[in-house]
Amino acid sequence: VVHVEDIKARKAVYVEIPDELSEIKRIGINTLYSHRAESISAALSGKNVAIATMTSSGKSLCYNIPVFEELTKDTYACALYLFPTKALAQDQFRVMSDLIKGYEASINLGVYDGDTPQKDRTRLKKN
Q1: What global pTM score does this model have?
Q2: What are the structural domains of the chain?
Q3: Three-class SS string for 53-92?
């Protein structure tokens, strides 16, 4: 090892949920880390966003919330998520299933992989 550098942890900065995202309060999210709020705001304004944080730090909220917001506003909108593993797809499906409980609009979710039953495949293809 040639060099070791300790980077001190920064104190978390929280922000209130903006009024336009009030539906997510229904699932118990009342504040967001500032980097999440900034990324969500940027995505909703049409900007490209890249997030780099440690594993299990809540990056999925940074893309799920803008996607769900668009799905509730545009009934013709759809989203396709691609995950590198079945395990990650199933994990994210569970996260998204919990998140959509806060939205009044009907949002259809599903996982399409080699284990998906034929009847579900047909429904997912139509959406």
Answers
A1: 0.80
A2: 14-126 (3.40.50.300)
A3: CCCCCCHHHHHHHHHHHHHHHCCCCCCCCCCCCHHHHHHH
